[in-house]
Design brief:
By secondary structure, the protein is an alpha/beta fold. Helices cover 38% and strands 15% of the residues. It folds into 2 domains: 167 residues, Aspartate Aminotransferase, domain 1; 247 residues, Type I PLP-dependent aspartate aminotransferase-like (Major domain) (Aspartate Aminotransferase, domain 2, 3-Layer(aba) Sandwich). It binds ligand KE4.
Length: 441
């Protein structure tokens, strides 16, 4: 299929968006979907299959978001759909334990041995919120250290940005978060190993936990520099703070054992989401038995959820995890993602665009209109966001759905092989040329 250069009609998305804004803030149930960062009309989707999405007007797109990670085996995979249908026919929710929850917990423990014990939640936010509470309950301390540009869900104590001053006690990034909450959160630059050393020297005895995206994906894809994660591990050990790897995005996305499997660095607590639910609402937090034994009903840290461990979501998760466990799954996913990045960089060069770089780990990727890969948030904000936005729309008009923000990573599925990849590269050829023409005007 030749890449179109404009989508014929998006009138259904336009009218749905107008209606949606009457009853839903921004017309969306999660802010990034509103296209505020890139402008234009968000697409309302009606159907997805494998690597493809169809919007309400029937336009086809190659998807490079995969629902922000969950659709790693491809949308509407027959095995996942069959598992969901079978589970649903036996009941949607019991509010009581089921065998599937045990099977899922054992599978996760076998793949992430640091998670000796865990609890399922209905979102990544619930997982990180609970992990923070467990860390505070286990250590009896209150301070949390996080990093600028890392997003851990809309948890009050984590919606905090670097404050002023040398050692940055946080300021809220969101209205509604009391200053007193933000004051318990210290925020440093990602990869600021020296800053972490200084922070622990001054505040170590008060730090309950460090929470980090071990490969950042919420300021676009940013890798840890050598020694950064190792320093966090060493300092948490020496100050008896807990190290929390927020692997909601990276868990079972960068490899079968997450970043902890790639690096050999075992956190004290891990949070998960996205892939483990296979597209259904699911999160998880867990760690050493000694730590998780503070969680009610075993211990004094309360945590609960009506739909936690929901049998239909668990069925989707187990079906998905079975597929990603197949031999060669991550080798293939890693290869196709890396090859696509190389293809995009080459086509940008061919079009005469020098400031375009790309990176990938496993099935997640980052593209940047910049001359070098970012190491922290300032590098990402220094990249050419306007050029990204023009590229985003040029690709959207050509039937490729990129993440609608320069500050988001992208995600492929195992189904992104052959035609969908060729289609993306053909669209990129034309989109990059379009950028150069626009620049020449
Ligand atoms: P949820 O509550 O959205 O399930 O998970 C929150 C979360 C926690 N930790 C990490 C590392 C995450 O990436 C996320 C959610 N990621 C965003 C993507 N940037 C979800 C998309 C959205 O907010 O709509």
């Amino acid at each position: 299929m030749n890449a179109p250069t404009s989508i014929p009609s998006i009138t259904q998305s336009q009218s749905l968006f107008a209606r949606a804004q009457q009853t839903i803030p921004g017309g969306v149930n999660s802010p990034v979907r509103a296209f505020r960062s890139v402008g234009g009309t968000p697409r309302f989707f009606a159907r997805a299959q494998g690597p493809y999405l169809w919007d309400a007007d029937g336009n086809r797109y190659v998807d490079t978001i995969c629902s922000w990670g969950p659709a790693i085996v491809g949308h509407s995979h027959p095995s996942v759909i069959a598992a969901v249908q079978k589970a649903a026919e036996s009941g949607l929710s019991f509010g009581a334990p089921t065998a599937g929850e045990v099977e899922l917990a054992e599978w996760v423990r076998d793949h992430l041995p640091s998670m000796e014990m865990m609890r399922l939640t209905s979102s990544g936010t619930e997982a990180t919120m609970s992990a923070i509470r467990v860390a505070r309950g286990f250590t009896g301390r209150s301070k949390i250290l996080k990093f600028e540009g890392c997003y851990h869900g809309h948890v009050d104590s984590l919606l905090v940005k670097a404050g002023s001053g040398l050692l940055t006690f946080g300021n809220p990034t969101s209205a509604g978060v009391p200053e007193s909450f933000a004051a318990e959160t210290i925020v440093l630059d990602y990869n600021d190993t020296a800053g972490v050393e200084a922070c622990f020297a001054e505040h170590g005895a008060q730090i309950a936990a460090v929470i980090v995206e071990p490969i950042a994906g919420n300021m676009n894809l940013v890798r840890p520099v050598p020694g950064f994660l190792e320093t966090l591990r060493r300092l948490c050990d020496s100050h008896k703070s807990l190290l929390i790897f927020d692997e909601v995005m990276t868990g079972f996305r960068v490899g079968a054992r997450g970043v902890q499997g790639l690096t050999g660095i075992a956190p004290d607590l891990t949070t998960l989401g996205k892939v483990i639910g296979g597209g259904m609402p699911m999160g998880a937090f867990g760690g050493r038995k000694e730590i998780m034994s503070v969680v009610a009903p075993l211990g004094p840290v309360y945590q609960a959820g009506t739909l936690s461990g929901n049998p239909v979501a668990v069925a989707a998760g187990i079906a998905t995890l079975k597929i990603i466990s197949e031999p060669g799954f991550f080798e293939t996913l890693t290869r196709i993602t890396s090859e696509l990045m190389q293809g995009l960089v080459q086509r940008a060069r061919n079009a005469g665009i020098e400031g375009f770089v790309a990176d990938s780990v496993g099935g997640m990727f980052g593209i940047y209109f910049s001359k070098s890969l970012p190491k922290h948030m300032d590098d990402v904000t220094a990249s050419d966001r306007d050029q990204f936005n023009r590229f985003f729309h040029a690709m959207l008009d050509r039937g490729v759905y990129l993440a609608p923000s320069a500050y988001e990573a992208g995600f492929l599925s195992i189904q992104h092989q052959g035609e969908p990849i060729d289609f993306i590269l053909k669209a990129a050829d034309s989109a990059f040329a379009n950028l150069q023409t626009a620049k020449a005007r």
